[in-house]
Amino acid sequence: MSSCLLNNRLDNRIAGSSSSLVLSQCQYHPLFPECNSPLLNSSLRHTGQQWKWRWWTYRRRRALSFSIKSSPPTPARENIETLRVRAAASSPQNISANTTVNRTYRRIADCIIFPPLQRRKPRALIHFIGGAFIGAVPEVTYSFFIDLLRQQDYLIIATPYNVTFEHTIAAKLVHNKFMHAKDALINGDLHVPGVNADDIGNLPVFSIGHSNGALLQMLIGCIFQENLPKASAVISFNNKPASDAVPYFEQLGPVTAQLTPLIASSPLLDASKGLSVDSFRNLLDAALPILPQYDQESLQSLQNFVEQLPLVLDQVSKGVSEFTPAPSENRRCIETDYKIKNTLLVKYKIDAIDESDIIEDILEPAMQRVGGSLTKIVLDGNHITPCVQDIRWETGRVYTPFDAVRQLLRSLALSEVRETVTSISNWFNQFL
Known about the structure:
- This protein is of the alpha/beta class.
- The protein folds into 3 domains: 63 residues, no CATH class; 242 residues, Alpha/Beta hydrolase fold, catalytic domain (Rossmann fold, 3-Layer(aba) Sandwich); 73 residues, no CATH class.
- It is 49% helix and 11% strand.
- The chain has 17 helices and 8 strands.
- The chain has an 8-stranded mixed beta sheet, sandwiched between helices.
- It starts with a helix and ends with a helix.
């Protein structure tokens, strides 16, 4: 029996036809298996109210079945072709050991160069420093943030660094790396598409730092007398002591000190020391055909990121208990020696470790001393907003409510990153 016929009979029954419905007439229906038997039973006779409830239940189930069976819209033809091209390009037979996969950056002098998109002429040079740990691989952890800056026609030099308790040493090292990379670009040691070496020396220089990178940018403005940026954007400034910045730091030291002798006496450590750097590189070369989505640069970034943890644990095992200089010393240094004339403080509404308000009070007399300007803005987001990635989640054949919530959260997070980049770029515009 067709569903339409069953609906008509149910409607007639609800409208007040006969007091009972002969179930033997309902020869088959998948939702009501008890109706499949031709035999009548007195227990199968239902009142009008019971049939009314069955009718509404059937209607709801039928509507749900139609929504589940509905297919998502077919992607455009060009999107399908794009996927085919990407799949063919990423196949192992099309990738050699020297192939660069999905990479639009270059490395020089231990820095990463990001040219403007579409090979347009850059309007300014930005020195970018990321946060602790994640700042070792900015091409991965800040890729979406950096790409948005590149869309604004900025040439970006990102300086990776390993996390350390010596902030002054880290600031000097990062600044020297940046200057070497900039000089290499000016001298033409590296060709960047769309970037003329003769124009780089005339570009205005800005700086952006996030979290611990913001602190390093401010220390650079205190330590050096020249080659400082024209303006600096400080995102989620953090100058907390180690006990607050690193969870369970006080308990980490004794545990590491106890484990260090065990690790030192381990035969695995002796075996690892026998592996030279060249041997490790050969291992990465051998693994490259197995991992066609990654190139040598990506594997090097992964290596740099992993190598930080043993270095930090080694310092902790040796009794390191606080950053150098201490947070109080950093604040005094910034108040008396900070020389970058224009500074933008970027604070997010949900950020428990942000200290922008504290550093604002310290920078106000410093700006009066150098005759500069200080601006603070508060944006939607949290401490890791600059690290949000544009991850394109693939939905299944059925678009579920979970997909809708996920898409909404993704859109909100990406909009916060875009708002951050737009606000910084608009503030930079006044100094071009």
